[in-house]
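Comment on this:
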Amino acid sequence: MEALAESPKVKIFDDATKIAQAAAKSFIELGREAIAERGCFTVALAGGSTPKHVYELLASEDYKDQLDWSKAHIFFGDERCVPPDDAESNYRMANEALLSHVGLPDKNIHRMNGVGDAVANARLYEDEMRTYFNDAAWPRLDLVLLGMGDDGHTASLFPNTSVPDERDAWVSGLWVEKLGSYRITLTTPAINHAAHIIFLVTGESKARRLAEVIKGEHDPARLPAQLIKPLDGSLQWFVDAAASSRLSNPGEDT
């Protein structure tokens, strides 16, 4: 196995609160740039507690008026196969924390349908994305927010499943044996065609795996997060001190 050729940009913050503040600032800056350049901003949201803090900040009085939300289109990196009002739904979390507070038109919210057959719903979501992106070869999202599990997964690209190796589809539905549940996820190439990708990683429980993903040998079957390498874009890791504790020469310290 080969070592990763180049380390991505890693920014280390004191805690999850500082990460959320930095991510919210980047979200606003990238959104305003995209709207100024092309008249719209496309972003894929992540689930999880750290992204939730980002969304709550974006919905706060200090942030929400800094972006023209009518020109933002919201997609999702992955979704659990549950109804949209289920406590486990990524859409529900994002809607309660952000989407319902900023005046987004309903047509600008592109949620994954978690009810019914995961594979069929993945195809329908890909159709919706292809329509939005005018049947481009791949979607060009302005921003993708990602988390990383302590097993090295990101979005719903899990170790020892076939989906991380998907090279043709934009969206896949899959059964995750270790979780005993179905998921829908953007595929590796769909994510890697984004203009900007930001990982949000917190907690000591992620430290060993984070070091393996960023500094370890290339082993994407075991560590799917290593597959995230934008083809023509930027990749940043926003991590807290606890998660970064096993990194050496981590890059930029904030």
User: Anything to note?
Assistant: Confidence is low (pLDDT under 50) at residues 1-6, 250-254. The domain at 19-150+179-189+197-214+230-245 is CATH 3.40.50.1360 (Rossmann fold).
